[in-house]
Design brief:
- The protein has a 3-stranded antiparallel beta sheet, with helices on one face.
- It starts with a helix and ends with a helix.
- The chain has 3 helices and 3 strands.
- The chain is an alpha+beta fold and about 80 residues long.
Amino acid sequence: VKTLLQNSRFRCGNDVEAGWAGSLACQPGINLVGGTGAIGFGKDQSGKMARAGGWGYYCGDEGSAYWLGKKLISLFGKEADGR
């Protein structure tokens, strides 16, 4: 890869960073994604970055469609049982 790219500058990162860059034009702010999974990424004015979530349903994935569906099914079961 180094031979192919030679002196090109590149950085590998999570796709949530690309979402942040596109949605906020690389300006300070927070990008939240809730879909199949859930993740948040932000950058402040000093360039400090923070990320939360995105670890999959085994580790929580709060706010994802899977998580919401699971909560809904659980709530339905409780309601149906009269709990």
